[in-house]
Each structure stands twice: as structure tokens, then as C-alpha cells.
Amino acid sequence: MTIARLTSSLFAMACAPAMLAADAPAARSVIPMALLGGKQFTVEAEVGGKRRTFLFDTGEGTTMIGPEVARDIGCRPWGNVVAFRMLGERLDTPRCDDVAFSMAGRAYRAFSTIVYDLEEIAQDGGHLAGAVGLDLFDGKTVTLHFASRRIVVEDAAGRAARIRDGREVPIRLARFNEGGIDVNIGVRTARGMAWMELDSANAGPTIFVAPAYAADFGLRADTKDAQPIRAEIAPGVVHAGKARVFPGMIIDGNIGMQFLGEWDLTLDLKSGRGWVQPAVRS
Questions:
Q1: Phi, psi angles (nearest 5°) of residue 176
Q2: What's the pLDDT score for residue 21?
Q3: Is the Cα torsion angle 245, 247, 252, 253 positive or negative in sign?
Q4: In the chain, at which end, N or C, are there fewer CB atoms within 10 A of the end residue's CB?
Q5: Which residues of 44-79 are buried (b: 16+ CB within 10 A; e: fewer)?
Q6: Which stretches in the chain have pLDDT values below 50?
Q7: How far, in Å, CA of 272 to CA of 15, rounded?
Q8: In 3-state terms, what secondary structure has residue 273?
């Protein structure tokens, strides 16, 4: 289930400079993930002096807190962040700024968070205090191990090892005014690169493709039925599975656990680069 593609502008796409150097944290940190309802992933974080459960969603864009968390940290939500879901539905949400999180003993700070109640998707899996996006790790190098349910915030040695042993994949970062980040992965076509949002909340059997790109992937644009797709991301990094074409999509495409469940992905969220290795399951 895709929660939302959060963006301040439909034209916010920006490719960060491809630089190898990045500031790595002094020590490696491992953040465990748990499963919610058998599909979505959650993390535990301390916010406002309480330990809480947050959805972890790579497609979140801007980290989200619920109204209860806003009250506990003494924030009166203000302003307006304009968000668009994948199919163009507009959301208008207030925000809280400079929110402190603690995960696995390390402090993180969100430049801004949106305030939204996620209880509608947590009915069968307990209380959700919000959703953590990749913006909370801005400037760091993280490896997403969905198969073994871990987020690793890399130190200098870990980062070097992941680069040495991994295969580089094309990554483009979209940065937003409120501090949010979307990560998009390049998928090759005969006419150029299609940029698909990396969305771990897309836990179903299909990736999603906009009609304008259907023919480039050998798909029919006149049906929403699942169709076979072969998506080449880099030499030796191919997703062969199913796709659905959705009218009205405001992005090129969306790829989630169909890909992230098979590959461990390292993201340098400073320079905008990425590397993959076959997923290690534990």
C-alpha cells in the first residue's frame, strides 16, 4: 500500500552532484525493523520522551508525526505542506519543525515533519505514531536490509565496504522545501532513463508504470491488469516480474518491495549515489 508521495512541487526533481566523498557517522548503528500486518515495516523511536512505533517508508518524502505526538512535544501544528499522492491526489497538512528522534541509541533531527493521523492503516497492527522517511537520515550513508529487517547507518569502513562490494545503480534525489527527500532509481529504456520512486510501502506483487512509459517497457496502456515486465537498472541488476499501468500517475513509476526484497540497497544521502548487493536473509 502506497501511503503518499510527499512533495512541495511537481517540479522538485533535482539530481545531486555525483561525489564520492561524504561525511559518515563516527560509529555504525543498526536500527531493527518489524513487520506490520505482514507487509509494512516499522521502527521504534523515542520522541517527546516516549518510545513509539513508526512506519518506515522510503516513499514517505517527509517524516510524519501524529497529532498525539505533536501535543506531547508541545508543538501547535502550523503552516501548510502541499503533498501529492502517486495518482495526483492532493493533500494539505500542517507541520511541526525541529523534531528530535532517538533510534538505536542515536539522535536524529527532522528539519520539519508533517502532522497526519495514520490510524486508518494501523487497525490490525497496533498504534502508529507516524512514519519515518529517508529525510531523517539526510547527509548520511544508510543500507536498507529489508530481507533481514535492518537499517544500517554506516560508518566510514562500512560505507567503503558496501561501495567496494556493491554494484552502483543510478539514483536521483528529489529535495523539498520542508526538508523532505524522495529517492528515485533509474530504469533503462531504449529512449532514455525512467525514474521510479523507491517505495517500500508498495508491498504488492506489481510495480507501477505511468501510461507515457508503458510502450517503453513493452506494456499495454489500455489495461490495469498485471503484465510481465523486465526492468534493467544496471548491468546485472534486473527486476523481472509484474507491472500495472495506472492512468493519472504524476511520476514515471513506482517500485517497492518487489525490488527491495531482493537487493540490499546502500544510499549515500549526501551525494545522491546508490549501490546494491543481493539481499542477505537471516
A1: -120, 160
A2: 35
A3: negative
A4: C
A5: bbebbeeebbbbbbbbbbbbbbbeebbebbebebee
A6: 1-25
A7: 7
A8: strand
Q: What is the tens place of the pLDDT at every residue in 98-153?
A: 999 999 999 999 999 999 998 766 555 578 999 999 999 999 999 999 999 999 99
Phi and psi at 158, nearest 5°, equal: -65, -40
29-161 and 165-278, same CATH topology: yes
At 164, list the grid cell: 567496494
CATH of domain 29-161: 2.40.70.10
Give DSSP secondary structure letters for 41-105. Answer: EEEEEEETTEEEEEEE-TT-SS-EE-HHHHHHTT---EEEEEEE-TTS-EEEEEEEEEEEEEETT
Pair 78, 125: CB distance under 8 Å: no
Q: Where are the domains positioned within the chain?
A: 29-161, 165-278
DSSP alpha helix (H) spans, the chain? 67-72, 156-165, 211-214, 257-260
- Grid cell of 40 as nine digits: 509494512
Cell of 265: 540497497
